[in-house]
Every structure is written in C-alpha cells, then in structure tokens.
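Sample pair:
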Amino acid sequence: MCLGIFISLRIFNFPDITADGSYTLGGVITAVGIMAGWPLPLVFSASVLAGMLAGTATGLIHTRLKINSLLSGILVMTALYSVNLNILGRSNLPLALDTENIFSYFTLFSTSTINNFFTLTLIVGVLAIFISWLLKTDFGLSMRAAGNNIKMARSFGINANFIKIIGLAIANGFIAISGFLIVQMQGFADINMGVGIVILGLGAVIIGETVSELAGFKKIFLRVCGVILGSIIFRLVLSFAISAGINPNWMKLLTALIVLLIIGIPSLIPSLSKKIKLE
C-alpha cells in the first residue's frame, strides 16, 4: 500500500483518497473470489485490475472534468463503498479455514508465522524491484517529469494527463494488492477495513522519506526501500502503543497524532528542516 501512496503522493504530488476504497476493493474481491473457488492467479488479477480501474476513474475525473485532486479521490472512494458492499453481499465475509491462499504456497518453514513473513518479504521485494525498474524506464521518467513540472513535461511532448491517469491506475493496483494480501492474512474481508488506511500509507511514506533524507539515500531503489522501512517502523510504533496498554478505540487518533508529529517536528527544529523537506 505504501508503494502505491508513494507513486500518487511523491511522484505525482496527488493526495489520492481513492486508496481507502481501492484497498477494500482488492480485499472484497479476494474474499469473494476465494470463497467462490476461483484460482488464486485469477483472484490476484481481478483484484489488481479492479484497483487499477478505480485509479483510472479518479484520474479521468481529475484530468477530464478538471475537478480538484482531493475531491476526485473522495468521489471515487464514496462510490466504491457501494460497489464493495454489493460485491461482498454483506458487511463481513470470513474465509473458510481450509481454503487455499497465497500463504499456503510456501511451506519452507515449520512455523506459519515465519512462512507468512517469508511470503510477504518475497512479494514486497518483487514489487519494490518492479517499481524501481519502472521509474527508470522512459515511461517512468515521463511520470516523474509530469509530477515535478507539468508545464515542462508538456513542452517535451509528454501527454501529462495520460501519464497521470496511468500512474494513478498503477498506484491503486498496488494498493489493491495490499487488500489482497491482508484479507488472506487476517482471514476475512470487512466493508470498513479501508477506513483511514490512507493515513497509514501517508505516515509510512513520510517516515520512509525522513529516513532516506537522513541516510542520504538518492537512488530510486533506496528511496523505495526507505518507504518500505517507514511502513515497518510505523507499524512497530503502533504495535508498541497497543502493547503498552492503549485502548484500541484510540488507535485512529493515535495514528493521526503520530503523522502530525512526524510532519510537524521538522518545522519546529530549523536544523532538521534543512535536511528534511516534507510537503
């Protein structure tokens, strides 16, 4: 998910709220597909394609109808709630215990937790290599140019609107993969599983970029790894808060405060703000 947020927020400077809906969309399609007995590759393809369609819708609304980026994402996210509810058929769908899932493909270790960790590491590694490669291709350079300076990009003959639509489609495809994985890991899909998820991705990206700036990471692959590291750090902080006895009812507030602190501290410390550029 954080890689998808990284593409929309840092490559295109596009605060894409669609993530809340596309994350759930990937999850509900996974749950329905698995319970219907679809082959796992088909479930994966359907989830990613659905997420990409959601991103395409946001991109088209923003570029064709000239609607504000934030509002475009909110409109698609709101529409996706009904879409997800109709696909799911109810508010919550548990997976049967004996269903095949992606974590049952790899049984190299005797402990399921280690197997799950290995599977996640493998998938995230492949996605990180893919996005690093993509951003170095001509298309990826066009994405970065369109995100940095749209007028300059157009002066070089780049169709910035088309590039942005495709980029948002890719970003939401990545986010749908996150929903695909989480549903199989937790064993159920819920209509509200995506509520506030975008702030988690935002926090992970900001932490990752802070780490990258402090460590002097300049290469795109290292920046992508920094975002993944930021996601891990953010989750560890939240896990520590829960283990410290904080009521889970306060988790959304705690998450918002952590992100606020991460964004606000560099502004309060001039020496730090020179090293870290957060916008």
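The mean pLDDT is 86.
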